[in-house]
Design goal:
By secondary structure, the chain is α+β, with helices and mostly antiparallel strands. The protein has a domain at 2-88 and 95-117 and 207-218 and 231-243: 4-Layer Sandwich (Double-stranded beta-helix), CATH 3.60.130.10. It has five helices and 16 strands. The strands form four sheets. An eight-stranded mixed sheet has the order 1-2-3-14-6-16-5-4, covered by helices on one side. A hairpin with a 3-residue loop joins strand 8 (146-149) and strand 9. The two termini are 25 Å apart.
């Protein structure tokens, strides 16, 4: 197994691995790589939904999707398509997955089953590195703030990673309604500034998918955004698993 950096503090490629045949040592090496690069890329994988779910289970307890969105062959897998289903036609925005739930998944596992010749890329940034880049006074102020999302779901604006203990900014630019104890105007301004800080061009890794790409990203340590919509005449089909903290 070779871990090769693609972008400092954000992404790395894991070469020489068939994720269908991992042992415990290889899984531990992947966990160690995730602690340094919250986005890992495994190229040229050939996975059936059940094999994808088996890999996801090595990283933690998998989320079970309701029948309406689950893959027919595995309730641990959901389908993300540009033609139907969740997320179709949604505008790009910076976020971490699952923040509309009280207990978001720790990791997302994303497999490129069908890739169009253009479009459908994903942008990633390290929310840990973004937090560390703030001055001490800003970090102290943000540490006390709480985000409000639809359904009165609340998350700290600065989250502590359950495995590494590192702190990271919590980002959902599309659904955050406000900040507890902060006026609507001030909250909107602060959130806009933080999203701009997280998404500075020099800190962003842009992933162009190839058939068989398998990505794993950490939803505390990283945020991501879709890019331009894929032409409906083309097909983009991704399989996704969500992994919870153990």
């Amino acid at each position: 197994m070779l871990v090769r950096e693609l972008h400092p503090r954000v992404a790395a490629a894991v070469d020489g691995v068939d994720v269908r045949s991992l042992d415990d040592d290889a899984t531990a090496a992947i966990e160690a790589a995730l602690a340094e690069h919250p986005v890992l890329v495994f190229r040229a994988q050939r996975l059936e939904p059940g094999e994808l779910a088996a890999f996801a289970q090595r990283l933690g307890p998998p989320e079970l999707f309701p029948p309406a969105v689950a893959h027919p062959s595995s309730e641990m897998v959901t389908v993300i398509s540009n033609r139907s289903g969740p997320g179709r036609g949604a505008p790009p925005y910076w976020h971490s997955d699952g923040l509309l739930r009280a207990e978001p998944p720790l990791r997302t596992v994303f497999y490129a089953e069908t890739v169009p010749p253009s479009g459908g890329e994903t942008l990633f940034s390290s929310t840990e590195a973004a937090y560390e880049a703030l001055d001490e006074q800003s970090r102290t102020q943000l540490d006390e703030l709480v985000l409000v999302l639809p359904g009165d779901v609340r998350h700290p604006l600065v989250r502590e990673h359950p495995r590494t203990g590192r702190r990271a900014l919590c980002v959902n630019a599309g659904a955050t309604l406000g900040i507890v104890g902060v006026t609507r105007e001030s909250a909107a301004r602060l959130l806009e500034e933080l999203v701009a800080h997280v998404s500075r061009p020099e800190t962003v890794y842009r992933h162009r998918y190839e058939q068989g790409d398998l990505l794993v990203w950490d939803n505390v340590a990283a945020a991501h955004s879709a890019t331009e919509a894929v032409d409906p005449a083309l097909e983009r089909v991704m399989l996704r698993c969500d992994v919870n903290a153990a």
